[in-house]
């Protein structure tokens, strides 16, 4: 983006293009994935992503790279992510018992966070020796490695039988379960608000760090790696925290006590300001990852298996719908009121979202329920 001389609005548009497919395909994806083997869907999405990412360096080498192509790649890559995530959410419960979902999700997320730390740390070296285009080619190869890894999994899922023949009826059934359940609905509202705030500042973050905070471009990747360490910490803390405090109570405490650290990020600047930014970003990432592990595991074990792909896709659709809105809002505010002021607005909003569980059925629970309500009572 810096190479093409993009401004805050262009950066917001690119980020929005990544998440826009959730608005267009998020709901039907849950139905379509429910009819197909989950592993095959995930492999196909990885292969498609590899081809898309490889097209960027090829265009760059021939001098034809444009913002239009970047937007197209971002959008189509987002389509692959929609179907991959819908399949991924339903595939783990086929491999792991319900009581092992938090540990399984924590290991997957922790491994991803560790890879992100290593990847961001190596990114500078890769770009230095291979150039920006070569770096994206390495990213494309990583999708091929992911596809090959999935091929090594022996367990194969069979498509779930769906009684209803029409697409809209199946979508409606999943949404009805999602919106009528008080716990899933509460998580839905929290996730939508949090993602809006997160993407509101993340869409302008590289520009903020370089142009407003005065941090050298070469250090931006290192700061991102430092923040990604929070993902590793959050994944390591998820299981012991839930065992000690309970899944519901532990989530509440983390949201109320950790998300306010995000207010340190707008103070970023040379010297001590860099330390404040690292503390704030690391804390936010740790809280987000931990909550995603707990709430994702809850949805996987709580939702009836025949509805899981549709409920998961419906939840991700609603939550992801706010992401392009947040990205576009962040970009527009960056143009109107400045980058640092926008950071204050969005991190302040993120802090407020941490209080939402206090206004939901989760406020008095120690443990999240294990089965849906029956006659208004929770079994768990």
Automatic annotation (TrEMBL):
GO terms for cellular component: plasma membrane. The keyword Disulfide bond does not apply. It is found in: Cell membrane. Keywords: Cell membrane, Membrane, Transmembrane, Transmembrane helix. InterPro entries: MFS, MFS_dom, MFS_trans_sf. SUPFAM superfamilies: MFS general substrate transporter (SSF103473). The keyword Membrane applies. Pfam families: MFS_1 (PF07690). Residues 181-380 form the Major facilitator superfamily (MFS) profile domain. It is a multi-pass membrane protein. Its main location: membrane. One of its GO terms (molecular function) is transmembrane transporter activity. The chain crosses the membrane at residues 12-33, 40-62, 125-151, 183-204, 216-238, 250-269, 275-295, 307-329, 341-359. This is MFS transporter.
């Amino acid at each position: 983006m810096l190479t093409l001389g993009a401004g805050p609005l262009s950066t917001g548009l690119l980020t929005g293009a990544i998440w826009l497919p959730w608005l267009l395909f998020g709901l039907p994806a849950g139905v379509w994935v429910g009819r197909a083997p989950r592993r095959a869907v995930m492999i196909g999405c990885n292969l498609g992503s590899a081809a898309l990412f490889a097209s960027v360096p090829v265009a760059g080498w021939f001098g034809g790279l444009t913002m239009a192509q970047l937007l197209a790649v971002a959008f189509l890559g987002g389509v692959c992510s929609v179907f991959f995530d819908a399949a991924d959410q339903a595939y783990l419960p086929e491999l792991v018992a319900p009581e092992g979902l938090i540990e399984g999700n924590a290991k997957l997320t922790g491994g991803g966070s560790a890879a992100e730390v290593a990847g961001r740390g190596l990114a500078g070296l890769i770009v230095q020796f291979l150039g920006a285009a070569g770096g994206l080619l390495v990213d494309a190869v990583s999708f091929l490695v992911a596809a090959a890894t999935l091929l090594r999994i022996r367990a194969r899922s069979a498509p779930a039988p769906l009684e209803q023949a029409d697409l809209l009826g199946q979508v409606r059934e999943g949404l009805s379960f999602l919106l009528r359940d008080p716990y899933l609905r509460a998580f839905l509202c929290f996730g939508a608000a949090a993602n809006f705030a997160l993407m509101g500042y993340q869409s302008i973050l590289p520009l903020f760090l370089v142009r407003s905070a005065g941090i050298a471009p070469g250090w931006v990747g290192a700061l991102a790696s430092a923040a990604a360490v929070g993902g590793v910490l959050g994944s390591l803390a998820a299981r012991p925290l839930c065992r000690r405090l309970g899944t519901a109570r532990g989530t509440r405490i983390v949201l109320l006590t950790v998300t306010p650290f995000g207010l340190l990020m707008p103070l970023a600047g040379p010297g001590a300001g860099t330390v404040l930014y690292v503390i704030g970003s690391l804390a936010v990432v740790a809280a987000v990852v931990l909550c995603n592990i707990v709430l994702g595991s809850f949805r996987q074990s709580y939702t009836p298996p025949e509805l899981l792909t549709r409920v998961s896709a419906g939840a991700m659709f609603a939550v992801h719908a706010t992401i392009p809105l947040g990205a576009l809002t962040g970009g527009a505010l960056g143009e109107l009121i400045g980058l640092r002021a926008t950071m204050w607005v969005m991190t302040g909003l993120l802090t407020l979202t941490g209080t939402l569980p206090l206004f939901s059925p989760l406020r008095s629970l120690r443990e999240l329920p294990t089965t849906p309500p029956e006659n208004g009572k929770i079994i768990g």
